[in-house]
Amino acid sequence: MPLPAPDVDRLLTLGARYDCPNGTTAVVVALPTAELPLPSGTVSACDPHVCLSEPGEPFPQSPPPGSYPVTLSVVEFTRPGDEEYTPDRRVAAAHLRLAEEPVVRWAMADGEEEEIQALGEEDYFGYGVDTGTGCFFDAAAGDELYDLLGDGDTLEAGFDARADVDPDDLGPAVFTDPDTGGGLVAFRTGFGDGRYPTWAGYGADGRPVALVTEFLIVPQPGRPLDLD
What we know:
Shape: globular
Radius of gyration: 17 Å
Distance between the termini: 25 Å
Strand content: 35-45%
Number of domains: 1
Number of strands: 14
């Protein structure tokens, strides 16, 4: 069976606590939110430093054109009883809300159903991260956003500009192409580089109502997690 979906509601609950295999404790301490402009109604995700101009196919879970909130689940790691351990804040997940309806079912956002069911135990589809940064963005504006961000200096400046509200520079950092109106919301990815799955949440009528990229840093029901 493929990797099971996380408990997204818990990831988005302030004060939710996770006891991790390496002896640390993670607590959800912040839920920063930013608006993502999607004038094309198509959304994709990738490492914006690496794949923005060639991100592959957009998610099939396309919302109507509009602006949608992206909320980050920020957890703080501590090691109870260890006074020398420095608390460490990380982004555990990035949640893109597409509609107000509650989610009744989660499934992998990438791949056909037959492909998903053919995955090995605990395997998953996801996008690769090589620079410790991920994003959701308007898929139709990928080339324009790539040009806007240039060699990455603008992207990092967007994180630096948040220093007053986010001293850890975790995001969300927002960028909008002035010509297309298409936007990008960037954020740091868990413990850094890796391959991370995105899950689609569906309402009772079968419509997609959310997308969540998970960074695999806190335990989830029904799956192992080994932290260094």
